[in-house]
Amino acid sequence: MYKRYLITSALPYANGPVHIGHLAGVYIPADIYARYLRLRGCDVVFIGGSDEHGVPITIKARRLGVSPQDVVDKYHSLIKDSFERFGITFDIYSRTTSSIHHETASAFFRKLYDEGKFIEQTSEQFYDEEAGQFLADRYIEGTCPRCGCEKAYGDQCESCGSTLSPNELINPKSTISGSIPVLRPTSHWYLPLDRYQDFLEDWILNGHKEWKTNVYGQCKSWLDQGLQPRAVSRDLSWGVPIPVEGAEGKVLYVWFDAPIGYISNTKELLPDTWELYWKDRETKLVHFIGKDNIVFHCIVFPSMLKAHGDYILPDNVPANEFLNLEGRKISTTHNWAIWLHEYLDDLPGKQDVLRYALCANAPETKDNDFTWKDFQTRNNSELVAVLGNFVNRALVLAHKYFNGKVPEVYALTDFDREITVEIPVIRKDVENSIETFKFREALKKVMDLSRLGNKYLADTEPWKLAATDMDRVSTILNISLQITANLSIILEPFLPFTVTKLRRMLNIEALNWDRLGETGLLAEGHQLAVPELLFDKIEDSIIEAQMEKLEASKKSDASAAGSVAPQKETVQFDDFGKMDIRTVTVLAAERVPKTDKLLKLTIDTGIDTRTIVSGIAEFYRPEDIIGKQVCVLLNLAPRKIKGIESQGMILMAKNSSGKMCLVQASEIMDNGTEIG
What we know:
Elements: E1 4-9, H1 20-39, E2 44-50, H2 55-64, H3 68-86, E3 92-95, H4 99-114, E4 119-128, E5 133-134, E6 140-143, E7 152-153, E8 170-174, E9 182-191, H5 197-206, H6 213-225, E10 230-231, E11 233-235, E12 250-252, H7 254-269, H8 274-279, E13 283-288, H9 294-308, E14 323-325, E15 328-329, H10 340-346, H11 351-360, E16 368-370, H12 372-402, H13 414-435, H14 439-460, H15 462-465, H16 470-490, H17 496-506, H18 540-561, H19 573-577, E17 581-591, E18 599-604, E19 609-614, H20 622-625, E20 629-633, E21 639-641, E22 644-646, E23 649-650, E24 652-654, E25 660-662, E26 674-675
Parallel strand pairs: 1-2, 1-13, 2-3, 14-16
Antiparallel strand pairs: 4-5, 4-9, 6-7, 6-8, 9-10, 11-12, 14-15, 17-18, 17-20, 17-26, 18-19, 20-23, 21-22, 24-25
Helix pairs in contact: 2-3, 4-7, 5-6, 6-9, 11-12, 12-14, 12-16, 13-14, 13-16, 14-16, 16-17
């Protein structure tokens, strides 16, 4: 065991609320681990906080007509309150706009700067002359060179999923002023990750083979490709200012700034002793994150810490995969999510039901799917029918036959001993699972203890013995109540609100983990409180209401955002006349290898047969589109996409939820018929 434990959880981005994907991926496993270690008597610090800098914050503020500080103040408060209501036991939940964070991040940068750990490079970046500022990638919009979508961003096309750079966009323009940006030289500082390649290969690939497969594999992939310098500054007004003379208008890049928030939040919590948790080799540092943050926490942040020289490195980074919702990717943009604060309002007192459902279905090794039906089933068939049923039967029978007092133990049978020796075995299994970050497996083992109790009562049937052998009934119920008391320990990391209720019914204080497995936790004659149901059955009407809300919120979001895009810039008739749009027939279609969204289409234009590559595989299977007559822009300049020359662009309509549909004539026309 380590002398102390430092647990960090990914800082949620303060431009929206927390949803169930965040909980399943990061915060529930982190909280389980922290609670478990505390129960074991360990010295634990659990760090949380809001990530409040970066371009998405400024974009949201501009759209809402408020300041970036207004945006982060709103969501920091909402997120912090939601975590508290849900029972996430952070020792501190702070923020990256705090003065102590700005001081810490500035000092961290300055130390590396003074020691020559950065390289400075000048490059040309897009500049908005009307707005008088350099443009972050998300403030640049243009036509995607891969699929032809006209609303691609400077860093990504959300239509075909391609990663882009602003220079690749066709007809780029500023989303701030609408003007065409120009390239201007600007200087930035870079962390030369390539200098840490050998260190990282040895530290990760040789030293941490025990890391989860998805984490180890992603790190190996990055290292195999060879690391490149990464900018640590950017031209922006919102963020931690670069503490160097002549760097006015530049701030720390949010990827550099945010992980330092773990350090600054620890300093805020423990101003006199924080260094013990960050610089003492007897501290175990564990980062809980989602898979989209693996590179930052396993390669970039450790390189920063190594460059600084004073800090310990993470012992483990147990990243989870993603959680989908009702078969679809969770999307904050399209409001396809279950927001934590709304769940807490809609289903009061059911924090543990959500904790249970998300842990039992945690995306630990692959993406998993949350459905309201599965949520209902897990509550009714597992929490109510297994755990709740056992506890209720044990307590009700104790009140019925022994006036609510823990009865005596008489002669133990071999079956009694078989049952009781299983408790420490389950304890060991749960410990092994938690300490290897297999929380879903650990929860299953925890539930095995309640299943053991149910089996014991079902096999011994004390209610049938009450008329003839009360000594045997007394022994059976004592053992059943001891199992219940053990449940009050083993359940605590997973279902803390349930444990509070259970302890109240057992009339006991909290018991530490070391006592788990004992069969004398409740003294003979101990008075129990009046039993109550641990869980309520969730009716179909509640699930139906949540499904209706989910669908309605999606529609509401589309309406609020405006399901119809605003009119584009006015063009002259001659401009339109230059476009050669015609009806064509799809002769063949196949997926482009090693892509998820691209189809290679062979079309009959009435003039010739040609190939078009289109990012529509998400919406159409190849066999669904063969034989269809569609509309195509024929005279678009040819462009190579994944090595295939694409000659034209299929016309698509995209609705507010992101679904794309083919544009077709209402009647079958001759191939090559002009549209105009």
